[in-house]
Structures are given as structure tokens and as C-alpha cells.
Amino acid sequence: MPEWIRKLLFWGFIAFLIYFMAFRPDGAANIFKAIGAGLVAMFQGLGDFLTSLMT
Questions:
Q1: What are the residues whose beta carbons fall under 8 Å from the beta carbon of 17, sequence distance 6 or more?
Q2: pLDDT at 18
Q3: Rounded Cα–Cα distance for residues 48 and 51 (Å)
Q4: Cα separations (Å) of 9 from 2, 16, 40?
Q5: Helix (H, G, I), strand (E, B) or coil at 26
Q6: Which of 12, 26, 34, 44 would you label with 51, given CA atoms 20 to 30 Å apart?
Q7: How far apart, in whole angstroms, are the C-alpha atoms of residue 12 and residue 17?
Q8: pLDDT tens per residue, range 6-46
Q9: Cβ atoms of 53 and 46 closer than 8 Å
Q10: Domain locations in the chain?
Q11: Which of 3, 31, 33 is nearest to 16 (CA)?
Q12: Residues 55, 41: Cα–Cα separation, whole Å
């Protein structure tokens, strides 16, 4: 993929995020909460796995 297309897509995505957060803050907050919860669950599972390896 040409570099200019990548830059265009990247900045378009950033612009969409800003627009989404400005005009739909509740929806944006819910999405970020879901992403955060998923990351926490992933790291919790990794921690549980490592703990079970040590015992």
C-alpha cells in the first residue's frame, strides 16, 4: 500500500474519532469502556495463567 494512502487512512481515522467523541460522547465512552474491560480481562487471564504455572 502506498505511503500516502496509509497516511490518508490514518488521519481519516483520527478525524472520525474526534468527530465521534464530539458528537456522540456517550457512545464513545461506552466503546472505550468495553475496550478497557476487554484489556483488563485479557491481562487478568494472563496473570491467572502465570500464577497457575508458579504453583
A1: 28
A2: 92
A3: 5
A4: 11, 10, 29
A5: helix
A6: 34
A7: 9
A8: 999 999 999 999 999 999 999 999 999 999 999 999 999 99
A9: no
A10: 25-55
A11: 31
A12: 21
Query: What pLDDT does 55 receive?
Result: 83
In what helix (H) or strand (E) does residue 24 lie, and over which residues does it extend?
Answer: none
Buried b (16+ CB within 10 A) or exposed e, 10-20: eeeeeeeeeee
Backbone phi, psi, residue 13, to 5°: -65, -45
Identity of the amino acid at 42 = M
Of 42, 40, 38, 20, nearest in space to 29 by CA: 20
Which residue bears the cell 490514518? 10
